[in-house]
Every structure is written in C-alpha cells, then in structure tokens.
Amino acid sequence: MVVRHYSVNACLAPLCSMHGLAVITVEGIGNMQAGLHPAQERLASAHGSQCGFCTPGFVMSMYTLLRNHPSPSAQQLESAFDGNLCRCTGYRPIIDGYRSFIKVIISIRFSQFCFQETKISQEKVTLYDPTQEPIFPPDLKINQRHLQSQPLKFMSDCITWYRPTSLKELLRLKQQHPDCRMVIGNTEIGIETKFKKQYYPVLVAVTNVAELLVVEYTEEGIRFGSSVTLSTLDNTLKEAVRKMSESKTRIFSAFIEMLQWFAGHQIRNVAALGGNIMTASPISDLNPLLLACGAVLQVVGIDGTVRKIVMDSKFFVGYRQTVVQKSEILVSVLIPFSQENEYFLAFKQANRKEDDISIVNAGLRVLLEKDTSVTDASFAFGGMAPVTVMATKTREGIIGRKWNEELLSNACQLLMEDLPLDPSAQGGLVAFRRSLTLSFFFKFYLSVLKSLHKQVRGNENLDSHYLSSLQPLERSLPRGSQVYEAVQEGQSPDDALHRPLVHQSAYKQASGEAVYLDDIPVSEDLFAAFVFSKKAHACLVSVDATPALGIPGVVDFVSHKDVPGSNVWGVGEEIFASSEVVHQGQVIGVVVAETQVIAQCAATAVKVEYEALDSTITIKEAIKKGSFFPPKHEIKRGDLAAGFTASDHVLEGKVHIEAQEHFYLECHSVLVKPGEDDELEVIATTQWPTGVQECLALALGVLQHKIVVRTKRLGGGFGGKESRSIPVTLPVAVAAKKLKRSIRCTLDRDEDMMMTGTRHPVLGRYKVGFTSNGKILALEVDMYLNAGVSTDKTIGVMDRALFYSDNCYNIANIRTTGHMCRTNLPSSTGFRGFGGPQAMIIAETWMSHVANSLKKPPHEVRVMNFYQEGSFTHFNQVLEQVTLQQCWKDCLNMSQFSERRKEVTLYNSENRWRKRGLAIIPTKFGFSFTKLDMNQGGALVHIYVDGSVLVAHGGVEMGQGLHTKMIQVVTSRVLQIPTTKITILETATNTVPNTTATAASMSSDIYGEAVREACQTLRTRLDSFIHSTGRTGMSWEELIRAAYESRINLSASGFCIIPDIGYDFSTGEGKPFSYFAYGVACSEVEIDCLTGDHVVLRTDIVMDVGKSLNPAIDVGQIEGAFVQGYGLVMLEQYKVQPDGTLLTRGPGTYKIPSLGNIPKVFNVCLLQNSRNPRAVFSSKGIGEPPLFLATSVLQAVQDAVASARQDAGLEPFIILDTPATPDIIRMACQDQFTKEASW
C-alpha cells in the first residue's frame, strides 16, 4: 500500500469526507516541548514568521512536500506554496528557510563594511530524516480497503451526507434524490453554502465510486473518471508526456500548462475534472481546452442508459448549464492524443498569475496539411460570454487556407465577429478582453509558425523580434542578499542589541502553539453575529427580529435601543444604526446565540425594510455634488504665480490611486467578559487598547477604570485594527452588558471587508512648472481623498499626504491642498504609510511626466531636484542628517544601474512584444504622530526574585517584532542579561494606561525609550546597592535576591514623549516630524505587451534605518512593506458597484501578492554608518517607509510601456493609474490588436 500525503484547505474539507483518512495538523508534527519538526524550525529560524497567522499553512504545505518527496527539487518547492498567502514577510525568508531542504547554493555579493546572512546553516538546525516521521496509523492501514469501500450515510437535522462506493449505488441515490448535489472536493459547494447562503439538504460524495476513479489508456487517448482529482490528472498527463512522443502529447502539454495556474495545490488535491465540467463556469480554465480538443464524455442515466457526448460548441446551453441531463451522471472524460500535424495551446490571463480566476482563457487547436493548409481547427474561449464559447465563424473562415499572415488578418476579423462582447457585459474590461482573444490567437499563430519552420533565422515569415512573445514570463524561486552592519567587536554575548534575533514568538507560531483571540477556549460564552445594512444610504423603516428570535439557540437581538450610554462614538459614527444607514455593512443590530453558526444564520433572518436615499460612492461623484467634510487643509510656500511665470514649461495631469484592503490574515475578533460592579474585561484584536477602552466607557456609561482591554498578539494589522476595531467591539460589549454573559464575535472575511474600511482612494491633480534642464520651479497639487462616511483618520491621513507631496524634491514655489470627500462607503482609515504613499505616487508621476517631456533620463531629473543637507521643506522644517544622496549612490552601485540601463535599451530594441523597464525611486519619510498628544507612551518593568524580568508597555505586537526589540533593549547596555530571562506577556490597559495606538512606525521609538528609562532606573538602583554594600562579583540571580532582601524596589516605570514637535495648519508653522528616514529602490520588470502580464526581475533596496535594533526584523519589515506596496500599485483591486455594493469580499476576488509576484532577485541593504540621536539607541522607525518604494515597479512598468508605445508610433509617456493591473498595462501599450478590439 502506498501512503500519499495531500495538503487541503481545512475550511473547505467537510468532516464527513475525512472518514478512513489520517488527518495531520501543524500541532501534530512538532511542538516546543517535544521538539519542532524541521519544517517548523527552518521557517522560524529564517525569520519567515512575523504575525504568524499564515505560518501553519506554509509549514503544512512544506510538510506535505517532504512526506511525498524527502529531497524536493527547486521546481517542486516553487510550486508547493501556490495556494498559500502571507501579508507580512514578502515571502523571501519563507523560501530561504525551505531552500535548505534542496541544498541550493546562491552566490551573494559581499560588502567589506557589512555582514550578511541569507541561508540557514545546516549545523544550526535539525536535519530532516524521513525515517523518523510518524507512521500511517496501523488500524487505518489494516482496514483501509474496508474503510474506502464502505458506503456511508451521515445525518443531521437539516443535511444528509451519502458516500456511495459503486456506480449502481450512486444511480440509486440519484433516483431517490433527483435534486441532490454531488460533491467531490467541496470547492464549489463549500463556497456557495458559506458565502452565497445556498442550502443543499442532500449531498452525495462521489469520491469513492470506483467507476468514477478510473484512469485508462485507450487507442484514442486517456480516459479519466469524473472523480479523478486535478492533481492526479496533472501527474498522469506529465507521465504520458515523459513516455510518449511530443507530437502525440501536445494536447496533454496544454492541459499541464493550464493546470499549473489552476487554483493552488490544496484545491487541485481535492477538486475533480468532472466537477469542473458540470459546474459549467464561463471562466473555467479547463473547459476551453476540453471543447477545443473535442473531449468525449461518457454519461449514464438513472435508468442505466449510457451515451457519449462530444464536447463541442453545443455543449454549454446556458449560464451554468450543459447538455447533460439532470437525470444523468458524468462517468468519465476522454482526452484525446494529438496528431502529427496538430497543434494545441492553452492561454490564460488573470490579474495574478497564481491561484486567480481567469479574465479570459482559451484553448486553440489547428490541424494542418503538409503544405500548411488548415484541415481542421477549434478555438474555444472562456470569459467572453455567459458560457464557454467556440469561435465557429473563425474556424469555418480559415479551413483550407494556408497558415500565413493573410490567414492571421482574416482570423482576427472573424474573431471579433465571433466574440462581440457587448460594451455593458458583466465584468467590464470589454476592449481588454476582446484584445486578449486576438493576442492569444497571434501567439498561437506565431507558435505554430515557429514549429513549422525548424530554421527560424533568415525566414521572412517569422520576425525574430517577435520570438520572445512565445516564451512565458519566467517565474522562479526568489533569491537575494540581505546586507547589514555587524555588531561591534567585543559586544557581550548577553547583549542582544543590534543582533538579528528571531522573532520571539516565531517558533510558537510555527508549531501552532501561539494563541490568537479565536484560539481562546470557549467556556460558557455566547456568540454574536451582526445584522448588516444592505443599502448604501437609506432610512430604516422597520427592523423585525421576530423570525431570528424564533430560531432554537437564539438568545437575544440587541440594537440601538439597548445602548446604556452614547450610541455615537468617535467622529459621529453610530454603534447601531438608529434611523438611517449610511453605508453597506453598517451594523443595525446583533443577534446573540449559543453557537456562531446559529447566530450567523439568525442574523440573516432579521427583516429590515428600507427607504432608499441618494448615495455618493466615488470621488468623482463627491466633487460633482460638492460632498466634502471640513476642513480643507493647505500647505504653501513661495510665490506660485511667479514660479509658473519663470518656468520654461508647464504640464498638467491627474492620477488615481485606488483603495487598498488591509487583508490582515486574522479578521477582527473580540471577547467581552462582564464582571462584578460594571467591570468589563475585553480581549480585542486592536492596535489601540486605550481607544477601545475610552469608547467602551462612553457607550456603556461607566468610567474607564472599570474596563480592561487586553491584546496578546494580532495576526496582522497594518493600521486596519487601530480605530476600526472599535465598531466591532462596541456592539458586542453592549450585548454582553445587557445579558451579563461573556460574548465573543469573530468576523468572517467577507464581513470584515464589507465593514471595516480601506486605505484612502486618492485623486491627484497636478500642475508643474519647470526649466528646460528639468529644475522644478512651481508645483500645485490638489488631492481628493475618499473619506467614506466619517473623517475617522482622514484628517491625519490628509495632513500626512500634504507633508509628503514633495517626496524628496526641493521646490521653491508650491501649494498643495487636501480635500476630504464625503461618500457612502465605510470610513476609510489608517493604512501603512498613512497617506504618504498616495502623495508620493502623485509626486513621482509628475516627476516622470517632466522627465519624459524633456526626453531626459528620469533618474537624472530626480537627482537634480533632491533636497540637500540643511534644506527647508515646503512646511518649513529644516532637514538634518540627510542620507538621501548616500542611499541613492549605494543603490545605483548595488543595482548596477548604468550597465543594466544599457541592457534594457538593447533588449527593447530587439523585441517588439516583450519589453523591459528599469526605474530607481527615492523616498523621504517623517516620524511622529501628527496629532501631538499621541507622541507619548509608557512602560513597566518588574524584576522577580529569581532574576526573571517581566516587561509591559503600551505597544501591540502584530508581527512587526516590537516585543522582540523591546526585549533586546532591556538586555542591551542596561540590564545586561540574556533574553531567556525576559518575557512580555500582553498589552493591557490595567498595566500601562493611556496607550498610544501602535501605528505610524513610532512604537519602537516611543516604547523603546520608555522601556530603556524603566530599565535604567532599575540599573541605577542596583548599581547603587552594589556600590553601597561593596558586594561585587555576584551573579545576576544573587544580585536580585540580595537587593530584594535589602528592600530595593525591583519595579520601575518608564515614560517617553517625543520632544520639540508640533505643527499648526492655521499658521503654517511648527515642526511636524522628529526626524526623517530615507530609502531608494531600483526595480527592473518585463512586460508582455500582448497580455499586460508582467514579472519583477529584480529589486535592490537601500534603506536608512539608523543603527538597527534588530537587522533581521528590519529587513523583514522592508521586504514585507515593499511587497504590500507592490499590491497597492500593481495588483490589488477594490471593486464597488455604483450602488455601494462591495464586489471584492475575499481571497477569491481580492488578490494580494503571492510568492510568484515578488522580485526574482530581491536585495536589501541597510545603510551603513547611519545614526539617529533622536531615537532609542540611534535607531529609526521602519514599518512604513519601504512600502512606497514599490513605486519603482510601477515606474519600471511605465518605462517598459513607453518603449512599446514608441514602437507603435505613439507618444511614449502615459500616466498609469494604480493598481496597474494587466488591463491597464495592455491597453496602454496599444497596437493593431487593441485598435481592432475597441468598439
């Protein structure tokens, strides 16, 4: 018996389907007490775990790979994680940790001044020995045949689950339950039942029906049972390709190509070929291929009648409908062999290459005579109609014609007739989708032409400039270097400061032992589910909870009528909508029940009647209606009119930066525990415990000292859990107080995205004046921010945007103005960078616009306008210790910019349909909270009599390594003890009061100084004790015991304020920032001009972090921020309908960067010899500044697009809105195909 291991998504795997299988979770392969599995240890040791919420998923994907392939190849490692997502690390350290399993050696460039560490030493980790893995459970192995052939029936009050094991039994069940749903991997039904609220009372699992699991070679091809998984399909076809001739397996090769982009391993391991056909999705990746190759289906009716169906243009008869009758069951699928002169290719274009649904896909086939005349052809497309369609006119139009340019031209015209796609078609992007069909056919045409001509060189029919378009954009395992200063020689081993320590929770996170809020065991807790508004703006006519209250297990319905204090919090938002709803996803009420499932089900039963009101959704609508929040802030200096008058040239433009969803992997959660005498304990996923505490006190009508808010760790935050944790917590707290019961609530992903708000969308309009050599003389910028329904964090975000509107450029005459648009969307909120990235994207847009208009290299124009040491910003703050020029110089050298600029130019001259771009971009980032009173924080340090140390401070650990850095500060030059003696348990308002939000990259500065001060107080007491007693030479433990016995206070608090800051917008005076950090990134990209796809070939970053407290953590923050910034500028689409309905509600529709999106070569260097006297131990903040550097990718893409446009005879420069997804890139290139595809 062969034991195989499969990784699956636990959230989609029904418990019933586990019968007879061995289930292994991350907790089962290793732990902190018994020892970690190498898959756990190596990821953590390589700094591959930050917030840790995704870590168990990566561990189990690697574990699965190792169990099946103890010595995996690089290719296997690359594909192992295509179903895994991480929002924190940027993926590189995860892959570095696991690369050690394949013993790949990477050459790294060293610096004589810096020390680097890129891979795990085999001597430092547990070697992997597959013989030590747990054996397959003997009982399951002995009884496997019986367990797998045993028919099953599971029943609940509302669902019956059958698992037949023979076709005869399946037909009987189908006859008894004609409306039953057949399930294999649950990848479709699981989504429908969870998110689309579908109900299927009878489910029949066909995973064990022997006749549906057949894999059989025939004379015509390979016949696959309909329950054969996609992984098995893939492996079988690969084996056939290895054994058979190329000409016989071209169809198989196309399926293999498509399958590598079909979902992730976890889905392919359970999803089946038959399910893909019968769900009949119009954007199915396999159905176009099945149609094009003429796959033959075998179906059987409940009466036993067997028939064969050829998949052709008549197979799909309507949306999600096929010619297979309701009374029939799909038994098998025959995928044919290809013929000698038959050519077959698969194409797919999605926003994200890995694990994303198609925008358009295609299966293209042609059969030729020896003279290249077309004998037969079939062209099938997905994403072009409510069904997968075949281009029948195109097929008929080319039959008998020779494979040449005339055929190509005619086929393109016919394709546009076959695939008209109405301008109002669902999904939009009509011109792009139509152009993709032409691009696919053009690529197919060239590929066939290349195959027909073995000697390409000198053949006039195949332009060598076109050949690169046939190669897929290469994606491979990332590699790179991380360069930083070594600790000073002679530093004590116990002094952890400046060392690259692993995140203090990394090993717990890798073993699944780290506790997140939803891991807290349920005792007598009740569960809350929200009733959300389904309207963007409406009056509440009535809210009837009677149907919900009638459901067994429902305890109560809570609304605004139950709020004992104020129903209004913050800047005017309601806890519960009382008479009017102002955005979809607003909380109207809370259903409390005995289980989460009951609560969520009952929440949907609450009947709400609305009277619709006019709504405003977009910035454009808000400007048209004059819908703004006051105030309008402005920063100006110089004489703008004089600046424009003196300018040789003046340009105007606009750029739009779309919203970005935080997509922290841990959704918002809260647990509220009422106590005696109005006391309340709240465990919340918040970056701002005091903010939650303050709002709770007002809502409940109690004093703040009655409320304790705790946070142990967050599974990511990025600003989205600062203020937006409050509207999640308050309704649950009101319910808990009313019922005097502990209540918990964890939002589902779709609820979280619908309710909590995003990064601010911004429309930037600019007017820039400059000289003929590129010196900027005047700049006017208006930024319109979509605030949503309240100002929440918008004033602060707007102010930051105004401060950053110059980026790194010294402009004598400038006016920048911020406008807050009032719309009917959830309140936009803080997000990593806090308005800075949007403003600097606008700045780099006009800077590139200037350079291109002068036909000057953009990097030269940028340097010409740089700030210098002692320059004054447009808000009149002098710049001191400016490291911008050094960062720029180091990045130019590290990236070999000059040489690669020439290489890119040469490449572009030799390739028409594939272009490369190169860009280098700087950033300047100021540190402080713009709200003055937030620039403070406290800490509390206890030393216990055994010498152990407990640290508490007001910062929240959310993956950024804050607690780890604080421990290093404690162990540094102050207490001088090993890190093993120190711990930080949680952040709580009863330990350190009046906490500032963990945000703005200020927590290391504020809490590091507070912890240092507390430790220094203790160190001074201990030194005084030693001096007064003369008792030297004691161990730490002996010293602490002696000090205790002498009644020395072993507890101390510390407090930090950021001095000499503050800015007054009314006068334009003040100093908003304590200090600045600088950074530079150079990125190179390659784009496919025919599809808009792209790959980041290389990124080099030089970042000024001062004297790093922990270089490994800082490098991780740089890489993670960069990849998150890449999502902002290149990938993440937040889609809202005109009525305010959010379309992107989860990972299926909202795509964050995956492993395949990160640079193939990713180098990071921390600037050498940088120091900062205004922060703890000369460090600088790091969480936010690197995010904007991903704009180097956007600018590189713009550079590549300019080359394509130049080849087409167009003006090279074009503004790319963000995110610059494939449709934007493709339609910016413009050529004969885009013209033909446009209406």
From TrEMBL:
Cross-referenced InterPro entries, in alphabetical order?
A: 2Fe-2S-bd, 2Fe-2S-bd_dom_sf, Ald_Oxase/Xan_DH_a/b, Ald_Oxase/Xan_DH_a/b_sf, Ald_Oxase/xanthine_DH-like, AldOxase/xan_DH_MoCoBD1, AldOxase/xan_DH_MoCoBD2, AldOxase/xan_DH_Mopterin-bd_sf
UniProt keyword terms in alphabetical order: 2Fe-2S, FAD, Flavoprotein, Iron, Iron-sulfur, Metal-binding, Molybdenum, Oxidoreductase
Q: Give binding positions for [2Fe-2S] cluster 2.
A: 51, 54, 86, 88
Which intervals of the chain form a coiled coil?
none
The UniProt record lists the FAD-binding PCMH-type domain at: 154-340
Q: Where does [2Fe-2S] cluster 1 bind?
A: 11
The catalytic site is made up of 1184 (proton acceptor)
Per the record, the similarity remark reads: Belongs to the xanthine dehydrogenase family.
Kindly state the subunit structure of this protein.
Homodimer.
| The protein's name | FAD-binding PCMH-type domain-containing protein
